[in-house]
Amino acid sequence: MTQKHILACIDGSAVTESVCDYAAWYANRLGLPVALLHAIDVPASTRRDLSGAIGVNSRQGLLKELTKLDEERAKVVNSYSTALVQDAKSYIEGKFDVPVDIYQRHGKLLPSIEHFKAENRAIVMGRRGEDHQNKHINIGSQIETVARASSIPILICSEAFTTPKSYMIAFDASKIAITATQMVSRSYLLQDMQGHIVMVGNHDELSKQSLAAATAELLSAGFKVTAHHLPATDAVNGLLTFQAENDIDIIVIGAYGRSRWSQLFLGSTTTEIIASTLSPVILVR
């Protein structure tokens, strides 16, 4: 049987410490190791093939210098990656009693994550990556790409770690919302916390029955959970207002239930919530 782990994707940005903390907390709750992953994505060289170009002999020396620069850059990037994962491992081991493995892979993040597909129980990522850490509303270029390709939970975090004590499931009676509820009910991760399952709008009888059924499933699995049906019509504002008023630590939401084409016209509740809260968000596909 393949050993599962919690995969923590780190990049050295300001949210790396938060990713390490939440990954270690997640792993500790489920009795699993943490796997620290740094994807080394070195841009391709700007050198071009100049064979046959006029005056090519006069440029050979410069090409050699560019090649040497490429090699030196690769060495520096590899050394940085090694230092990053080693420092992150030491940081986790100094705070949590969980095993930590480290991995470095060359290439884009998604293929690097998929390389460990059989071992991944959940993925932890920072809300703003290294390329977006100064942009307040940008959620990071990788999150949607990874979320759409993943069938396991993804925890998105950004702020300093605090031990979660409560959670909220954003529920709209859709297939993806029901899947999210079922996934919560089958895991120990949130079981001993105060839970809330919250539906905004959707006043038809079928949606109300779906909310009641989802709540009953959680209760029968031993969860402490209360159902809430809010009258507001704006889902994002309704959910985030409820979160603030009830001091909820973690939001669970079905990830990207609509197609990319639909989002061009309707937007994405998933993206809006991630971009509008500083709390950790667990995405379920």
Write structural notes for this entry.
The chain has nine helices and ten strands. With 285 residues, the chain is an alpha/beta fold. The chain folds into two domains: 1-46 and 53-162, 3-Layer(aba) Sandwich (Rossmann fold), CATH 3.40.50; 164-285, Rossmann fold (3-Layer(aba) Sandwich). Strand 7 (194-200), helix 6 and strand 8 (224-230) form a beta-alpha-beta unit. The longest helix has 34 residues, at 60-93. 36% of the residues are buried. Residues 129-137 and 259-267 have low confidence and may be disordered.
The CATH homologous superfamily name of the largest domain equals: HUPs
Please identify, by name, the CATH architecture of the largest domain. 3-Layer(aba) Sandwich
CATH topology of the largest domain: Rossmann fold
Instruction: Give the topology string: H per helix, E per strand.
Output: EHEHEHEHEEHEHEHEHHE
Give the overall shape, derived from the CA principal axes.
elongated
- The figure for the number of domains is 2
Give the fraction of residues assigned to helices.
40-55%
What class do helices, strands and sheet pairing give? alpha/beta
The low-confidence runs, each spanning 5 or more residues with pLDDT under 50, are 129-137, 259-267
Q: N- to C-terminal separation?
A: 24 Å
Number of helices: 9
Give the class-level CATH name of the largest domain.
Answer: Alpha Beta
Strand order, biggest sheet?
A: 3-2-1-4-5-10-9-6-7-8
| Biggest pleated-sheet summary | 10 strands, mixed
Please report which band the strand proportion falls in: under 5%, 5-15%, 15-25%, 25-35%, 35-45% or over 45%.
Answer: 15-25%
Rg on CA atoms, Å: 22 Å
